[in-house]
Amino acid sequence: MNILIIGSGGREYSIGLALKNRSNVDKIYFNPGNGATDMLGTNISIKDFNELADFVDVNDIELTIVGPEAPLTEGVVDVFKARGLNIFGPSAKAAQLEGSKIFMKNFLSRHNIPTAKYIETNSLEVAYKFIETLTPPIVVKADGLCGGKGVIIAKSHDEAKKEAGEMLSGNAFGDAGKSIVVEEFLDGYELSVFAICDGKDYVILPAAQDHKRLLDNDEGPNTGGMGAYVPTPLVSEDIYKKLEDRVVKPTLKGMKEENMPFTGVLFMGVMVVKGEPIILEYNVRFGDRAHARGHRL
Fold first, then answer.
1. Which of 102, 89, 87, 26 is nearest to 52 (CA)?
2. What pLDDT, in 10s, does the model give residues 24-37?
3. What pLDDT was estimated at residue 294?
């Protein structure tokens, strides 16, 4: 079997490393890959999805695995499936769970999936009014993709208002911040939990703990991830069961009902507050750091 892995990070290297020694894998291609992936297979550089599908056809590639979020939200899965090619990941519509924090939060609300109290807005006045109703810290999120950096935890009302203004003006994250989510801060411990989904059925993988802050002692701005470890002693069978019943099942049911069945990796950013798992965010692919640790399990 020949396999194509789309992406250029440590996550893609980790996937390739896990596949390298499987007896049924012949060749591995990476698009675009990095300095380490060319030790596992062949790096290519094709940006156009139709041209990439041509490459897959010509080189008898039986499976494509998409690593990062950008090609998913841009529709690479739709292009490949329209041509009858096997690809692992969600459609562009389903990838809105990560591509738009507003879409994600409203989806959670529609399907009664536990999440923090919030508003979504493109109005600075509305944002200011809601901020005043919250007790700091206050969370301000850009709607669009920001490479894991679009979430600000403000320590005061004034800071939250400043960050909201920077986002809505386009100064902070360009068009990705022209609409925002403002939500209450949840005080607990965070987990990253992955479910492999085919639109109906799923397998939940061992939870990881991902560390996002830039500095020690949970200080500094959020990053795409400073590191992760798997397994974590902070998750119990009770939490797994609650996630399955309250999150995974209603998410897959809701996505199917809304005509965008979810296939691929459902990455749940979870805050556990007094034993109750609450969804902070969804991603629609493996986490870079968490997967680099977790593939060994």
1. 87
2. 999 999 999 999 99
3. 47
CA distance 254 to 242: 17
164 closest CA partner among 133, 138, 127, 132:
127
Enter the CATH code of domain 117-184.
3.30.1490.20
Please, what is the angle between helix 157-168 and helix 124-133, to 10°?
Answer: 160
Could you read off the pLDDT of 162-184 as tens digits, one per residue? 999 999 999 999 999 999 999 99
Distance CA 283, CA 271 (A): 14
For residues 287 and 265, what is the distance between their CA atoms, to the nearest angstrom?
Answer: 10
For 224-281, write each residue's pLDDT tens digit.
Answer: 667 777 888 889 999 999 999 999 999 999 999 999 999 999 999 999 999 999 999 9
Q: Hey, which CATH number is domain 189-283, 3.30.470.20, 3.40.109.10, 3.10.129.10, 3.40.50.2300? A: 3.30.470.20
Residue 114: Cβ within 10 Å count: 16
Per-residue pLDDT at 219? 77
DSSP state at residue 255: H
The per-residue b/e assignment along 74-83, b for 16 or more CB within 10 angstroms, e otherwise, is ebbbbbbbee
Instruction: Please state, in angstroms and rounded to a whole number, the distance separating the CA atoms of residues 147 and 259.
Output: 27
Q: Where are the domains of the chain?
A: 2-89, 117-184, 189-283
Range 2-89 has CATH code 3.40.50.2300: no
Name which of 103, 34, 95, 43 is nearest 69 in CA terms: 95
Residue type, 11: R
> Which residues make Cβ contacts (< 8 Å) with residue 133, sequence separation at least 6?
none
> What residues are paired with 266 via a beta bridge?
195
